[in-house]
């Protein structure tokens, strides 16, 4: 058994996970199915920076983490500070699992990222005296507070996205298509060290900027007077950033300027509220109050923010409908917006780290309404 | 109720899905959790080309498909030929689901892509007289045969990857890092119309080419005599391609040439076997026999191929351990390799469409051992 070391990310993770558990479990099993149905907590718990790990699993004890991996992933697994057991095929995986899991009476499972068929597979193993316990809620609580090695990856992802965002006016101009702008943005981020975009970028010109989850079109070109909204992030060693800026092509109308300054003011109001111990709903309300006090009342149609980390929608939310207290060490987006259907939208989004007295903004791109 | 039209992809999908069902169900529910835990069959059945669709679901009847989506996805959903119902929050989703699902007695679920917590949610709804039935196996059978609209997206993804692959010698040369080469490859594909890479590219120089699931490193630079293995694909309207070529930096040694020609011969042997009605294991055996008849015996350490489509590991496999008969309309990879630990590896991979009498190769990049 490995002695606890403060500098060992896996040991720190074990400690954090088990101190978050409200239910009594001997071990937690995190099991991947086939891409895209992978358990992001597998990568959180093990810290393994690369590799696919389909059909692989991690067994987390309070002071010991072991992964059961296929031969294809053995070398990637050995990069992390975990015990590695290798199986050659599905049948051997089954035997290995049964042997390993028979040590435990109460086994925690992450129901929100475990497929139902893998749950049934665990059930069918009929490990004598064992019981499966859903620990997803407590695991998500643990994941909300980012640890130093996670923070350093997120900071890098934020830095890459910020630098790419600052460069947007260099490669996006009148006439370019949304897909070409998205491609150039991806190149810029990968050139700066990202392993890829953190998620499929939203690049929306003109009226399409009013659709928060819009996908770039090969047909839509930037025209004078258009808004150009970029919502994107970088992926770095599995961790992502999530940044939005809205630009204008040429000169902005008075209405567009008003939309932008309203959203910026709303974001400042939200950022000013954030601190350890504050409820997320209070932060959401601060942003919403600004927008609803203008002629853009009712046009901020989503919540103010969400957790980021290993997933672009990590646990955690800044919302009027979720009771969540902000805590030191959480990393969240703050992203108010105003959307006028068929006209256009503005969103300004940064990633922040909650601190004792306030927050630290991890993205660092200028916020004025820049022209393209 | 919509009349069946041959040209309507959603109607064709309904017909295909229900004719594959060995179990009797009134409807099938496909339910997404939070990214990355999305059901790729949701996108297969609805054909919706863009949008995220977290927390959304599709209800498939034999002649009717409906999606229940959040407000953020409503516009993307309307791009497809499906009925769209919109919910404002989780509570309203629950009510809407209960109302819609209460029409059915036997409800099919895709257990391999449904999270256990969503399965429990469906169970807890206690719809009077209803029963949940796992239909994942039959659904996967349906997905293996690609339909015309799917094939046209796959062909485009294959064409983009092939053109990018042909261009590799233009942007990869001695001294470049693996991550930079991966970035340039992504740029090339996105410039050609891909929405992004189909999966995280494997770019492996020198001895690392012997690790099939290797991730590119920022530290490793291409050196004279190195193998340079590229395993990558393009994503186009959610569908992917998957292509591998192995290059050499400068002049190849005799051993490297032998490895390459052996793998090429193995791939040709596999391609020659493929036709409707042939067992996948026969194709695998054809490739393996070539390699095992040389001094590289035993160094082909994975199966010969897998299905591709909406996912890079779509249902279907060309393997010695899977009993699968190839059928006209399946799209699979054919990718033998030889891996010498700590020395290097060669893999040659193409995507093929199974036809009545043989196969059509969808990727079209030269196969000789090209120099960088």
How would you characterize this protein structure?
2 copies of one chain form a homodimer. Chain A is built from 11 helices and 19 strands. Chain A folds into 2 domains: 9-143, Creatinase/prolidase N-terminal domain (Creatine Amidinohydrolase, Chain A, domain 1, 3-Layer(aba) Sandwich); 148-361, Creatine Amidinohydrolase (Alpha-Beta Complex). Chain A has helices spanning 9-20, 40-46, 74-77, 90-101, 116-124, 136-144, 148-166, 168-171, 178-191, 254-273, 280-292, and strands at residues 27-31, 57-61, 64-70, 83-87, 106-109, 131-134, 196-197, 202-205, 227-232, 234-236, 239-240, 243-248, 305-307, 314-318, 331-334, 337-340, 344-347, 350-354, 359-361. The radius of gyration of chain A is 22 Å and the shape is elongated. In chain A, the strands form 6 sheets. Chain A has a 6-stranded mixed β-sheet with strand order 4-3-2-1-5-6, with helices on both faces. A 3-stranded antiparallel β-sheet of chain A has the order 7-10-11. At the A-B interface, helix 5, helix 9 and strand 7 of A face helix 5, helix 9 and strand 7 of B.
Radius of gyration based on Cα positions of chain A: 22 Å
> Main β-sheet of chain A: number of strands, strand sense, barrel status?
6 strands, mixed
- Biggest interface pair, residues each? A-B, 60 and 60 residues
Q: Average pLDDT across residues of chain A?
A: 94
Please name the CATH architecture of the largest domain in chain A.
Answer: Alpha-Beta Complex
Task: Report the strand count of chain A.
Answer: 19
Strand fraction of chain A equals 15-25%
**Name of the top-level CATH class of the largest domain in chain A:** Alpha Beta
For this structure, the quaternary state is homodimer
Helix content of chain A: 25-40%
Helix and strand string of chain A, N-terminal first?
Answer: HEHEEHEHEHEHHHHEEEEEEHHEEEEEEE
What gross morphology of chain A would you assign? elongated
- End-to-end separation of chain A in angstroms reads 58 Å
List the strand order in the largest sheet of chain A.
Answer: 4-3-2-1-5-6
Structure annotation, total helices of chain A = 11
Question: Please, how many domains of chain A?
Answer: 2
Can you tell me the CATH superfamily of the largest domain in chain A?
Creatinase/methionine aminopeptidase superfamily
Q: Given the helix and strand composition of chain A, which structural class is it?
A: alpha+beta
Query: CATH fold name of the largest domain in chain A, please?
Result: Creatine Amidinohydrolase
| Unreliable runs of chain A | 1-6
